[in-house]
Amino acid sequence: MKRLALLLATAALLAAACGDSETDEASAEANASAATNTDEASDEESPDASSEGTDDESAEGADSEDSTEAATFGEPDWSQLEEHNLPVMGGMTLGIAAPQSIHYDANLVMVRSTYDSVQGAAQPTMVFGLFSQFVDTSPIADIAALTEQRIAAFGTAEPTGETLSAFGLEMERWSFVASDPDLDNGPLLSPYPLGTGGPTGWNPFPFSELYLAETEAGILAFGWSAPTAAELADAEAIFDQVAPSIELANQDIAARGTVTAPISASNPPESPPAPVDLPEGWDTPFDGVGMEIDPGSYTSTNLGTPVMFTVGDNWEVQPNFPGWLVLTGPESVGPGDRDLVFRTGVTELVPVNAQYERDGDAIELTDLQALADDPPPNMVIGISEIEIDGRTVLQADIEIVPSASCGETEVCEYILFTRYPFPGQSIRTGFVNRIVQIEEGLAEPLTLIVAAQDPAWFDIAQSVIDSLEFESIE
Question: What's the pTM value of the predicted model, to 2 decimals?
Fold first, then answer.
């Protein structure tokens, strides 16, 4: 449940702005948990790089250390890598090797060992992120703010004395080590430009080795993380393989801190709908938030019409608010990673460029067939019909074309918005995004969203979709 705290805090804060009493109560709980829990990320540590020596060696060691130049990258081995273009940091190109996968959002990229769709796990990970604030929007002014101010309660952050020259910066290496590796606690870092936000954060604990540099746009962190100290070597191997392949379309990292066209819905948000009554004789009301789900059948009353669903083993619930329900696989690290999302009030898609800015007019999303007939730039849509609880509904599989360069001004991502003040849902390159719209017989149209890199997840999510039952609306 690594992604829980930030999702809850973001949703609760936004919903509270509309004065909804249900989410006001969740806000207090979510904000408290956000201070101590993590949202999405693997973390890591590595052994201290000791500089101790004998008295006879001390002078020689000091001279050697003074003369040591910062490390640099060699050439990437593209024979072992597959190239990917991402709308990150103004446009990024990098290569990954099988069996690795990418998860990214805003100014954060993680390349990790491929997960098991059913069981899930926190994996050794290469991390590239630009952080200007914590998830509570407190600014990160300098490296000291990142390595000292919020560290003591969770672990230690110590410089190793090693440096790296990359992206026009001299970066210092730091080791992050959790006090209790069994806890998922840590200072959540926001990858969104200062003053903006979204449903992703990253925690450097329990173990990370990070090269850090101060820029005008925030702290650039580049390194590797792992859930255990023993797996740090695996994480470093990913870093060593992938890091040399990274290229930024615009090397001016300072420009990443300026957002001139914020991403937001076209219209002011409405208050989320009130929960409905549980029909007589229906299965257990579903009121869990941020927890594992026991196998069985449940009824959600937060989606305008009572909805019954059945889950098997290895399911968790993240947000569960009026108009927004997220079910995930175990150890989901964030949106698009092993989730099944229920949304009401869906209205539009907003195009986003690699500057993480809105790029053009919103696209109406109330008719999937119309969207498929006239797809927006760089989007490929496959339409099919499926049966859900006796209804024939449309299903759209949406992908961003692999040939998109994801450069500074090219659209490689779309954000799905609703009428309600909750974070948007990203439709992004590198993922298959499945959208199902259900309207017949419902008090409020319902949109289902499944996103994954691993095709196996769609079969797992489909088992829940096939179980859906709706109360009949006269």
Answer: 0.77
